[in-house]
Amino acid sequence: MYDSKPWLTAYPKEIPAELEFRKEPVQQYLVDAAKSFPEKVAIHFMGKEMTYKELYHESIAFASYLQQIGIAKGDRVAIMLANTPQSVISYFGILMAGGIVVQTNPLYTERELEYQMKDSGAKAIITLDILYPRASKVMPQTDLQHIIVTAIKDYLPFPKNLVYPFIQKKQYGIVVNVKHEGNTHLFKEIVKREPKKLVQYDFDFEEDVALLQYTGGTTGSPKGVMLTHRNLVANSSMCTAWLYKSKPGEESVLGIVPFFHVYGMTIIMILSVMQAYKMIILPKFDALTTLKTIQKQRPTLFPGAPTIYIGLLNHPDLKKYDLSSIDSCLSGSAPLPIEVQEEFEKVTGGKLVEGYGLTESSPVTHSNFLWDRPRVKGSIGVPWPNTEVKIISLDDGEIMPVGEIGEIIIKGPQVMKGYWNRPDATAETVKEGWLYTGDLGYMDDNGYFYVVDRKKDMIIAGGCNIYPRQIEEVLYEHPDVLEAVAAGIPDPYRGETVKAYVVLKEGSKLTSDDLNQYARKYLAAYKAPRLYEFREELPKTAVGKILRRTLVEEEMRKIEEENKKHA
């Protein structure tokens, strides 16, 4: 049944069932784009543009410098940047130098950053001037030998580059002046240098890791997902096949989804370079800036997450802006409500479809069709080319009949090599080439798939993966907390939001404000609980495991009752 891949009958003739991949490293696509489209704009960033030739030149200069400071094949180099030209240059520069990219969220606290640097064994980190104090603080506890510092203003046009430092000072209350000396290096100095001839290393398309992308789990600390050149090339090539009406060298892509998120990195950055598209980059999502940018820059492709589309649709000035350039949008990282989909299509005249994937699959495995096929409501779509999918029973691992719910398992060239230094976790998740997603779903008669729930307790808020265990560890460290559990509860804007249920020690006068201030010290803002509830006790199993699910179900019932009242 699944072996016959019933979904292939739905494929338009333009999408092949199997693709052949060029066995070349990811960075080769930048070399090709610079050759074929040297004068084409690669990046538009807040009014300043950079061609493919310039992007290539600066990436080579960066790669050469990394090799000079001792970065060799297989060394890990972290990028802790928002979406900026520097994050693209760094990414391709690290790969050209033979290194492995470690994507790092700039919102990380010292604690989170230290953990990731230790775990990955990164030798160098590229970061913003305002984050320099954080990086230098964790440096002694890690293998970091070099900090490369850049500033937003370095890639802004005149006069924005002069004004921005004042805005930044007002916003963050700090001015960081870093000198290019010792183990601190300035990005703008590096890319000015004439590159030396690069040391070339043997290359293995199947095995060489390009990226460590950290993801967590409910069972402990975040794990580094090893994505190889083959994984990333395969997934970007599948995406190219899916976007069969898009033309190489002609499209422009709105780059809001962070590049430190695997979805933004593959579907915006690598795909754009592969196809020589123009990337219109915004460092963070702000609805008004986005509306203005769409009207002015006229992007044709807009990969996003539901929260981004919702944020735009709910902006009071939406009607003032012309969004008609948008032709196709692929939504990922959280379920996309139907009404958002339809409303956004009405406003733009383009198509918005939902896809599905995991960090462990580079990320996309399924998507709905953008063109030539009717919409299937509530579905994550069909598997991409070269991708096999099965639904298996949670009890005995047998294949489930059509329409029956089980665990979604996936096989394909986009499935990760494994978790960094975690053979046991790898063996649990990937069995005989099949990736066990932990998501529950079913397939219909036509080969369309639906996700109904997650086996794991991971919370997805605003498209960000949040792992309850990390939050609980922080809460448990507070001297007044006896027990704590974090759970994702429904939220109309973020999809889910984090709620913490806490039992205090006897006599404690701790308030939710106190706890909130404490949590935000040690957790990135998007992970910190938005809601707190104090209880006498928490529901538990016979062996004392706190029943998170029970609390979520309670919450659902409350919401249902509330809705009935207002119905």
Describe the structure.
The chain contains 16 helices and 26 strands. The protein is α/β, with parallel strands linked by helices and 567 residues long. The chain folds into two domains: 26-385, 3-Layer(aba) Sandwich (Rossmann fold), CATH 3.40.50; 461-566, GMP Synthetase, Chain A, domain 3 (2-Layer Sandwich). The strands form six sheets. Strands 7-6-5-3-4-8-9-18 form an eight-stranded mixed beta sheet, sandwiched between helices. Strands 16, 17, 19, 20 and 21 form a five-stranded antiparallel beta sheet that branches. Helix 1 packs antiparallel against helix 2 (52-68) and helix 8 (229-242) crosses helix 9 (262-275). It starts with 27 loop residues before the first helix and ends with a helix.
